[in-house]
Amino acid sequence: MHFVVFVNGLLLLGMGGLMGLTGLAYSGTRGVFLEAALLSAFVGGLLCIASSARRGHLHRLHSFVLTSSAWVTAAAAGALPLWLWHMTATDAFFEAMSGITTTGSTVMIGLDTTEPGILIWRAILQWLGGIGFIVVGIALLPIMRVGGMQLFRTESSEHGEKEFASAARFALATIWVYAGLTVSCTLVYTFGGMTGFEAIVHAMTTVSTGGYSTSDASFGHFQSGYLQWSGTLFMLAGALPFSWYIRLLHRRRVRSEQVQWLVSMLVVVILILTAWHVLANGSPVLETLRLVAFNVVSVVTTTGYATTDYTTWEPFVTVAFLSLTAVGGCTGSTAGGAKMMRWIICVRSFASEIKRIRFPSGIVTVKYDGKPIDWGVQSGVMTFLVLYCSTIFWIAMALDFYGLDLSTAISGALTAVANVGPGIGDIIGPAGNFSSLPDGAKWVLSFGMYAGRLEILTVYVLLFPKFWGAMA
Amino acid sequence: MHFVVFVNGLLLLGMGGLMGLTGLAYSGTRGVFLEAALLSAFVGGLLCIASSARRGHLHRLHSFVLTSSAWVTAAAAGALPLWLWHMTATDAFFEAMSGITTTGSTVMIGLDTTEPGILIWRAILQWLGGIGFIVVGIALLPIMRVGGMQLFRTESSEHGEKEFASAARFALATIWVYAGLTVSCTLVYTFGGMTGFEAIVHAMTTVSTGGYSTSDASFGHFQSGYLQWSGTLFMLAGALPFSWYIRLLHRRRVRSEQVQWLVSMLVVVILILTAWHVLANGSPVLETLRLVAFNVVSVVTTTGYATTDYTTWEPFVTVAFLSLTAVGGCTGSTAGGAKMMRWIICVRSFASEIKRIRFPSGIVTVKYDGKPIDWGVQSGVMTFLVLYCSTIFWIAMALDFYGLDLSTAISGALTAVANVGPGIGDIIGPAGNFSSLPDGAKWVLSFGMYAGRLEILTVYVLLFPKFWGAMA
Ligand SMILES: [K+]
Ligand SMILES: [K+]
Predict the structure, then answer these.
(1) Which segments cross the bilayer (chains A, B) (predicted)?
(2) How many C-beta neighbours within 10 Å does residue A3 have?
(3) What distance in Å separates the CA atoms of residue A171 and residue A458, rounded to the nearest whole number?
């Protein structure tokens, strides 16, 4: 466990450094950030020193504690400058957790006139959360066997020094791709008329599918077709598997069922909703296509930007958006949600049930990316989906308990657990804000974002005493 | 397939006979019922004659067509007198489908002054639907392998004449138990002060966990502690596995995890909600206990009687009731919902996932009633639960499309698919009524009750052309 403490210490040191840089760069909030930087670095340093004496062996089960603790540590550190600035502890923690989980639900009003230091810090949190989750999704979750993720285990991922080295190379390549996408996105946004500051903030929150913006009007602040189409493209880029990019760069076999399904689904849904809205309202075709494409991609990739309050459209559209909230992007990307991989396996499980009914004595296999999957993966995926639904349900119940109406409670639980950002309704809809919610509801939602980001089981597993026993 | 047509013909003949008896017994609606009886018997007779020439072989897959068609036929025949009486076709079909699926959602207002012939007919529909579902659940679903029901397959249930004979004996025993419970319930209700008519109607709709009443105030019309406690007991009796009663009568081993879990869960939930309501409102303990016990048992057994509008209690209580709506009773009973058996296997699948995480190379088995279950059962159960949730979701979407608010849409979909009866909200809550819904919504809900009653897959499977190919 010393290793876990050490990594958390390093994390605090690193975030302290970033706070320091933010403080130096933006004079308006300099004091706040420098104070937070010192505090964070001090605690981080202490943790590193305390744990560095003996590193010990990294048990496979330590990955659960490592991942779970890292996101809490990062949220707490991320909240520090916001709290010192002037937010309440609850609001600061909610905002930071929403950032580091790339959810993007905000309790802040008046973003257009907020200190740039604060705005860039929110973007940095999302950018860090995004790359952190990609690395965890590629390197740790397959070993942890969470929700069927062992499907992506390479034969070598569990043993040996050589494989750690190759994993490190892979992680480095991922970071390069991520950084490359962010820089490209910044350039494209600047070219479209954003200021340099706006471009950097939005690039960081686009590629991480986070969704924090510099304006209360979210991406809708930029009434440019070019910018909105670019945003659509880069949100999608953030939701594709990063290992797929690396294979693409190495000119390896690039077939990925997740990518195929995600893109096909987006095309179909966008065409249907566009046709619907055009026929129902007689709105101009191309503008509607742009609006629908942007907002559908935003919800499905779990970015959560909005360019229009689509909940004021036909009821059908509202419900369509609500149902898209649970879908999510691809595994090994920055996106949240249940992930395409799991829906593919779910649909095939259903097909295999039908087949089993037709041929009771036959052997039915479920395939993924052309290879048959073992039933541990299938069981992991189905358990995940049931657990996912029940988590959304009990979080909705808890929110209802704090007096939220059913519509707000359900869409709030959904948007938090799926790390999307906006919900449905007057309060937390695309045109709304989470600031007016009671404190208790904010803590419940923070937990929802946290559990959702770490694929539920990573967190739930820690509640079992037997788990701690097995690790000792 | 001739056999399927023949059984539907017999069903129409039998229901025609019951309509005839109802017509003879109640003079106020005599013309209506005698006309419906002739129509039903005429069509039934034609079907029997047309199909009796060659009986053919009953393919295992024919069970799906048999079950699915029987419930539509029964609903259509059941709607006939209601339609001839004065209801619209939509309302009559909704009311009859709600009856034959033992859901109990009603579009009728002014029950207290409604013709007794109509009231008894609604009760007869529920009583028939209840015993029909028990027989299907014990005899057919295990062979059909729907949603993990193959767990209850006996080694002999798929082959041979002798086994058909033993199945017939078993079905007969079940009918005796059902009739015995109904008669006992009638006597107990009469003893508590109901008129003979009220007692018969309520006994038929209690034991079938249907929930139709003779009063708009539902069971709340009877302000008697004795009657309400009796109702609680007999609703529970209807939701226990009928094979368990038969084993009990034969003094065989009577351990059943479903019964244990159901009763334990009820005790815990009732105690918590009673304590909550007493502490929050200072209401009298014993009266609260009675109210809570009745309404919790009513929702969990999917009966759907109400003695109070619990949605006017604390928000926590409303949400607790909403979440109880999905639980359901035991398999092989009249109850709807997802059934305890599936929740037990779901919880154990979750536990096995945790175990798999701890011991990745170990073999993890899931047990039920002390015996390890094969993974086809587990996969069937998990697929069922995911399918169940998605069915509720798309039905809620469809209802939303007809302009219902989200709360009404979601609780309406839930209550229909789980065959409970009342939803949440002003319109369809325990104190409300389904009559004001648009016709489209009534058809959607009718489909939801139908799919829910037949355990979803029985109906969905018919949508696959390959299924029809395999049967030919
Ligand atoms: K987001
Ligand atoms: K019912």
Answers:
(1) 5-26, 32-52, 64-85, 124-146, 167-189, 226-247, 259-279, 316-338, 381-399, 443-463
(2) 18
(3) 21
Going by their DSSP bridges, the two strands A367-368 and A371-372 should be labelled as antiparallel
Report yes or no: B311 at the A interface, CB cutoff 8 Å. no
Distance CA(A91)–CA(A106), nearest Å, equals: 9
Compute the distance from residue A144 Cα to the ligand 1 centre, in Å. 24
The Cα A377–Cα A354 span in angstroms is 19
pLDDT, tens digit (0-9, with 9 covering 90-100), for B301-322 = 999 888 887 777 777 777 788 8
Give CA–CA dist A141/A134, Å, rounded: 10
Nearest alpha carbon to residue B98 among B464, B412, B462, B472? B412
The pTM of this model reads 0.87
Strand-pairing partners, residue A368, are: A371
What distance in angstroms lies between residue B332's CA and the mean position of ligand 2's atoms? 16
Distance, CA of A131 to CA of A143 (rounded, Å): 18
φ/ψ of residue A424, rounded to 5: -125, 145
Quote the pLDDT of residue B271. Answer: 94
CA proximity to A200, closest of A172, A179, A174, A173: A179
Structure ipTM over 0.95, yes or no:
no
Query: Would you give the distance in Å from CA A427 to the centre of its chain?
Result: 22
A with B: how many residue pairs have Cβ under 8 Å apart? Answer: 133
Rg (chain B; Cα; Å)? 22
Q: What residues contact residue B175 under an 8 Å CB cut-off, 6+ apart?
A: B131, B135
- Residue B54 — very low, low, confident or very high, per pLDDT cuts 50/70/90? low
- Determine the Cα–Cα distance for residues B352 and B363; give it in Å rounded to an integer: 10
B405 touching chain A per CB within 8 A = yes
E-strand stretches of B390-469 = none
Chosen for mutation from A353, A356, A462 (greatest number of chain B CBs closer than 10 Å) is A353
The predicted-structure confidence for B267-301, as pLDDT tens digits, reads as follows 999 999 999 889 888 889 999 999 999 999 999 99
To the nearest whole Å, the CA of B472 is away from the closest chain A CA by 12
Q: What is the pLDDT of residues B247-260, one digit of tens each?
A: 888 876 677 899 99
Per-residue pLDDT band at A214 (split at 50, 70, 90): very high
Q: Dump strand ranges (E) for B364-440.
A: 367-368, 371-372
